[in-house]
Amino acid sequence: MRRAHLLPSAVLLLCTACSGGPESDSEESAEKAVDHGAAVRAAIARTSAGSARLDEKIELRSSDSPTTYVFSIAGAFDLAGDRGRLTVELEDSGMDPVEEVFVGDTVYVRGSRAVDAGKWAAADRSEALSRYFLRAPLNDPEHLLSQMKAMRQVSNEGEEKVNGAPAVHYRGTIDHTTATLRMTTQTKQGLNKLREKLGADVPVYADVWVDGKGRAVQTRLSYFGGTRAMTTMTLSDFGTPVKAEAPSAKQVVPVTAGEDVLLA
Description:
This protein has a single domain, classed as outer membrane lipoprotein receptor (LolB), chain A. The protein is built from six helices and twelve strands. It has helices at 9-12, 30-33, 37-47, 141-148, 176-179, 185-198; strands at residues 51-61, 69-78, 83-90, 98-103, 106-110, 120-124, 152-162, 165-174, 204-211, 216-224, 228-236, 252-254. It has a twelve-stranded mixed beta sheet. Strand 10 (216-224) and strand 11 form a beta hairpin. The radius of gyration is 18 Å and the shape is globular. 36% of the residues are buried.
């Protein structure tokens, strides 16, 4: 199996001044002044009470490179039962996909550069860390949903189509603590330096789309400064059966909690 190479370090650290995000509308209506956070939290709670198909895209680009690195993640996840199976690919890299199986508080990873080909690395889900801005540790969808629940200054942006059906678009921000939750020390230090330079939190925008049944059908975290980072997760086929079983013990190699075992 082909091994992965690390992405440029500039993608890991945000060390350039940021530009603002969406410009505020000087004629914003009274409706948008209302915080719709309760609606978002209720939608995420409803979605988290069952299973769904997940399709996620993570886009990363450093300030000094024209290349955008795109991770595609797909699979099914029982959010209520803490079980799921995902396939992770780094687009246009020529590298083999990585498989992830979530069973309770353990994540099994095959295709990892941390173990021999054909073996599964077993990592502690609750202690795993992320090296990349706006990428959940081990691509854990429940981590991403927990960040969305912490949205602030939430406004109703109107109705849009997601999965071919109407959904209400809510927009807000997340604070520095939420944005850097369970990041490696190196990555967090880079963000802390940028925060000090700005004299304020790094502006991370959060978007959630809620369907007519009150479920979160799409989520997005984005940052558009000198470095671009955006994570979009779309949920569909609610109630889909999820098959996720731990590999046999002879195929499993435990790795240190927090160790990066993914493809890049």
